Amino acid sequence: MRYNAQSIGLILRTSWRIQRSATIVAFFETFGRALEYLMPLFVGFAVTGVVNHQAAYLVGGLCGVGASQGLAPLLSIVGVQSRIGLNERVGQFFDAQIGRLSGSTATLNHLHDPQYQDQMHTLRERMGALGMAYNSLVNAANQLVTPIITIVVAASVDWRLLLLLVVAVPATFTARANIAWEKQAEDDSAEAGRRSKHLGDLTLEPVPASELRVFGARRLVRNLLGIHSLEWRKPFTRAEIRGSFMATVVTVVYVGASIGILAWLLHDALAGRLSAGRFATAVLVVGQLRDAVSSLQSSTQNLAQMLRTAGRYRWLVDYAEGVAADHAGEGAPPATLRHGIRLEGVTFRYPGSEQDALRGLDLDLPAGAVVAVVGENGAGKSTLIGLLTGMFDIADGRVLVDGVDLRAMSLAAWRERCAGAFQDHLRLELTAGEAIGVGDLREGRIPGSPALEGALADAAAGDVMRALPTGFATQLGPSWPGGVDLSGGQWQRLAIARAMLRASPLLLVLDEPTSALDPATEHALFDRYAAAAKTTARAGGVTIIVTHRFSTVASADLVVVLADGRVAEQGTHAELMAAGGAYAQLYGLQAAGYR
Ligand SMILES: Nc1ncnc2c1ncn2[C@@H]1O[C@H](COP(=O)(O)OP(=O)(O)OP(=O)(O)O)[C@@H](O)[C@H]1O
């Protein structure tokens, strides 16, 4: 209850902040409704006035009828008009907030968390409910005023009319059951909904769409899409069927009871025990009571849906605040590294996963060193990079930068001192200059051409740029007007240029940086990497190269072999070869392959 009241408070505050006048004027409709539902009383007065020849009753009643017929619609129109723009702006506000909350969360655990993804999916699905939040609130007020006025009128006419309320009580239980069923349907369908979306996206994106064609898997994906879409909608259909069955039962009971009570009242009217005025009011009130109950029912459901969506939004806010509180460290990273980066007993498991990706990992990355990290698929190399760049919360252990826990440091400040080219690099469909320039936005803008040219040279990507029709100004991405597409290797070289833009990072990450490159470019790049690593080393920075190509490893100062989330071996290339362990075997295998 308290939680719901806070959600209503949030919506009222938001609307108030967006447009005060419209927030107030929207409630004119509520007054209009109240006036409208007082009409049976006014009619009753007028009939009494006519029957008993009482002018005051007649005039008062007619004025009331006039007001409820003339003024009420006017108030309603003004109220509705004021809501039109407001709804959109409230919706846009929440839309922007949701994007901001997800995008600015300090770490990435949430993006790997199925529960978070389900909440986010349902929230996006129900965005309309939040966008129309203020609308639902005003509707609820409008629909609440209806039963209140009608009950007051009914009680003033004849107590027997209140018996209809007893009959309407089951309707409130039905409303509650409907709300619970809807909530259950939302929760039950979230995962299937996400699956359907994923499968639907596969058919829309060029890369998966072409692979699906090659494998002739389109029909399979279509069938799966059909199955999961059905799974997705099934809980809602079930809830709707249950709801409409209950609504039918309630209506039949109510109509039966209404007929009985009206017959009873008519009997008294004919016997002279009930005045004509009261009987006329009673006839009108019976119809209104039914409307009042059903409008109360539907508004409760709409309100409940809006409150549920607001609850999911607040869950998201709490989640983001929780992450922010866990990363409240404000310490600045050192200007230069003196000792290096150290991982102590680091254990990490992805949310929802059954096993640790890294287990009690101890590792020293000395200042100024070039460290090569190798290991089989799934050994934990990319996870290690994620932890070093502060992307994940660690369950156990710590990452120390010159002896200072990363948690005590401002993550944003630490990341400003990191640079990297990543395995799954971004294909930023901006202009070529922007796609590289985002690598160093510390001045809040894209660096000028000299810096971009330097980064291109460091990434051996000058020829990629020269081939573009308008150089840095060229729009990338074929789906945009005048946009050009690049090959996988060309995209990767721009990603490397982005990594090279940032001067003297304390951590330079090159995660499978040459996986898409031809041998000549790869060779050219490794000379540049050596140069970049030397520049990085001048500030004591650590360069980490994650690679499956052992030929690129030999010149590293330190080679770390990961296996099963732990350090299996470490040392220089010569030391590891001499040791004759896993590294020596893998190196031998690759070397033999080239012979
Ligand atoms: N998002 C995720 N959710 C759950 N488990 C994950 C996730 N990402 C990776 N893992 C698991 O964590 C472990 C380490 O994965 P990681 O990507 O770090 O390996 P890697 O050494 O970089 O592999 P590769 O050489 O294939 O890139 C693997 O067992 C993997 O299945």
TrEMBL record:
Keyword Transmembrane listed? The answer is yes
What membrane topology does the annotation report for this chain? Multi-pass membrane protein
Q: Which organism is it from?
A: Rudaeicoccus suwonensis
Q: What is this protein called?
A: ATP-binding cassette subfamily B protein
Q: Where are the transmembrane segments?
A: 21-43, 55-80, 243-266
A Gene Ontology molecular function term for this protein is: ATPase-coupled lipid transmembrane transporter activity
Q: Please provide one cellular component term from the Gene Ontology annotations of this protein.
A: plasma membrane
What InterPro entries is this protein classified in?
AAA+_ATPase, ABC1_TM_dom, ABC1_TM_sf, ABC_transporter-like_ATP-bd, ABC_transporter-like_CS, P-loop_NTPase, Type_1_exporter
- The ABC transmembrane type-1 domain sits at 127-305
Compartment annotation: Cell membrane
Predominant localisation class: membrane
Q: Where is the ABC transporter domain?
A: 341-589
Keywords (alphabetical) are:
ATP-binding, Membrane, Nucleotide-binding, Transmembrane, Transmembrane helix
